[in-house]
Amino acid sequence: MTATPLIRTDQLSIELNGHEILRRVGFTVGRGEYLSIIGPNGAGKSTLLRCLCRIERRWRGTLELDGRPLASIRQREFARTAGYVPQAHGPCPPFTVGEFVRMGRYPYRTPFESLTPEDLGAVREAMEKAGVERFEDRRLATLSGGERQMVYLAATLAQGAELLLLDEPATFLDYRHQVELMRTLRALHRDAGVTVIAVDHDLNRVTGCSDRVLALREGGVFFDGPPAALLEGSRLESLYGTPFSRIDTDLRPTPVVVCGEGI
Asked: pTM score, two decimals?
């Protein structure tokens, strides 16, 4: 018997302001998979993620979570299954780190209900996994972008979600915070079985971390398969409209990808 995919889309389309942003997108994501979504600017990557997060609801077609229509699932139930990690730029919420991460337990409590010892334990574990427990009493506005990104991840982990949805999570982060973030995501994926769907522009990170890659071009699916297959032939050149060089190395199973010729 074939297992029900955690995410399934079929003929997913969306038109915004008279422009077709997504057209007949279909793919599945199994439990425990790490799927990276790539493509040139304007391909529809962030719009697709916003549909998966239920931020954008003006789509047509099929979009299911664990075999159920996404639109039929109540928000609290959805939040117990899926968590969205936004980018860390923009206005900061006016809370301390501890207050913000504790809000991640909202799917399990009414607005005026106190957190239980179980809730507080989940919050503590989430902050430890994200490495932000030392910031618990600091206000979010005092943290760097990389530190805030890890706090946003901690709040999502506090939800207990089995699916993480991330929109370019390493954008605006320095190298150290990129490494810390990806190390945490890999541990959650490989050790805890968390399903990860991430929009990403870094092809080397994508090919090094992903189980599968979904490439969009002009709102449609250009490629859906393993990272190694993405690097075959002229797929990258066709996707992005620019030449790429591939450098083999013993440090990783897939070549290092460099945009440009003669490298």
From this structure: 0.91
